[in-house]
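We emphasize that the prediction below concerns an isolated chain of 636 residues; any contacts that depend on oligomerization or on bound cofactors are therefore not represented. The input was used exactly as deposited, without trimming of termini.
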Amino acid sequence: MRDPLKILQQYWGHPAFRPLQADIIAAILGGKDTLALLPTGGGKSICFQVPAIASEGLCLVVSPLIALMKDQVQQLKERGIKAEAIYAGLSHADIDRIVDNAVYGHLQLLYLSPERLLTDILKERLPKMPLRMIAVDEAHCISQWGYDFRPAYLEIAAVRELVPEVPIIALTATATPEVVTDIQEKLLFRKDRQVFQKSFVRDNLAYVVRQAEGKIAQLANILQKVAGSSVVYVRSRRRCKEIAVELVRRNIAASYYHAGLEMEERSARQEAWIDGRIRVMVATNAFGMGIDKADVRSVVHIDIPDSLEAYFQEAGRGGRDGEKAYAVLLYSRDDKARLLRNYELSFPPLEEIRRVYRALGSYLQLATGAGIGRSYDFDLAEFAQTYQLDAIVVHHCLKVLEQNGWLMVSEAVYVPAYLQVIVNKDLLYDYQLKHRKLDRILKIILRTYQGAFNHPVKLKEPQLAKFLKISATELRKGLNNMHTAGIVRYRPAKDSPQITLLRDRVAAEHLSIDLPAYRTRKERHLSRIKAAIRYAERDICRSQQLVRYFGEKNSQPCGHCDVCLARKQAGLSLSEHQQLSQRIEEVLATESIPLEDLVTRFSNVREEDLLTCLSYLMDEGFIEKDASGQLVWKTQ
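Result of the prediction step, given as a token string:
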């Protein structure tokens, strides 16, 4: 077994591990089931990538995000590490080749979505793979009590039964104590398990909530005061563009990003932002996962997310370099009503779900009793318009169908064009003589892409069209003509979301939904929304609210959020508050007394300071009044 530290230095160029990384790696290399809770930017991927290289064999990585899988595999390959990913859109031949490489020991890491574990090819060949460990990324998705439940994650337990001796490492940035327990149970963790949890406190990140009606003016003011790179999160694609245009009008270098843009445009904008040519990226939550940019100085939310898990993860993309950064939420009176309105839309009635399911079967031209395992390009807006459905309602109905194991909706992912010549050289030459316009395209392809006679080659269509001095549309038309003529096998590039059927189609009236679980998820979702609203509306240290939500009950005020700074201005410093709090706790931990008696006991303290401190402690939930009106210190 190779030295993990030397691997880190050789492949990543880091001199040392971050806190907890070495311990996590030692646990998984020691064969122990391991759960790692590291906040966004805490270096989770290193915790399974390094041990995968350190040991002989294969690391199977289960991840829910195709774009993130592709990004990590590309980075690993650039470092000379043998890695591949299997995802919707790949040809059967590609999947077969990748699985074979895994079986014969030619890979160190194999990434796949949890839904892929259900396929026959994986079930059949998984026991033949030299598995050393299984890594489960975004492990909170396995808990139906979490904010992003994916039922296919439950299939990981079945994989474990096939290879019971292989240890599992589960990783997540956002999990409440209840979800932490659920992850271990669902993944069948063994008794010698180890759990590593880094504090959710981010000392260098100042959380701020601004009550803002004129949000664009507030945003511009923040960006003018806080120099450096910034991400601005917005809920709607349309608003992304509007806000970016307005920032540019105010001489702030900005662009926008959402899943509806062409892949090349998304990549170009992302690179420009990473390189610093664009200072501000206005984006939906499609932006940010897996992006390695440490010097983000501010993350601004124009709209409040519907859970503190989502907010903490997105806000945590600021200040990963350890330098001071700001996470700002702009909150208005309308936000609460909008969140609650969206909540009602998020849980459509069963009849509406069946209506969308029936329309989906027609849209995909699926016969009853067929469809399992098939993937289809899917344009939600076109689908909704075709069947006169509300696009938002469709989105939430698909989410319910996904949570009940009927289908999977994947994000837009770019799959390059493929081409293979499927005739011999004589027939090809004859075809070229008869089709002079296509002859030039064929000659350039055969010169540029070696092996097109033997196996499918990936075409870079934009570069090819540019070299040929024709439009991309004209190039694709020519390639399609050759495909139709049986000269080549051509598959155009794709960059669209996909729907994968996980069960055969049934008659809509026979569609089954787990209603008790559905109602429970609805209740949990409402509690998460209320927690997000409380975060924005209560004058309690922002950092303290966040880390308590994730189980750190004894956290102290941060001293630099907007609430703490306001308290300092009120005349009670953080150190004075902490010292006085400790003295109050010593008194109330042993007895309950009326407020008047407590004031008497602290006659050497200014009454105004004592009352201010008591007010903060009551707001923060440390002190409460019992039925008789006496002050009681609550055990956290």
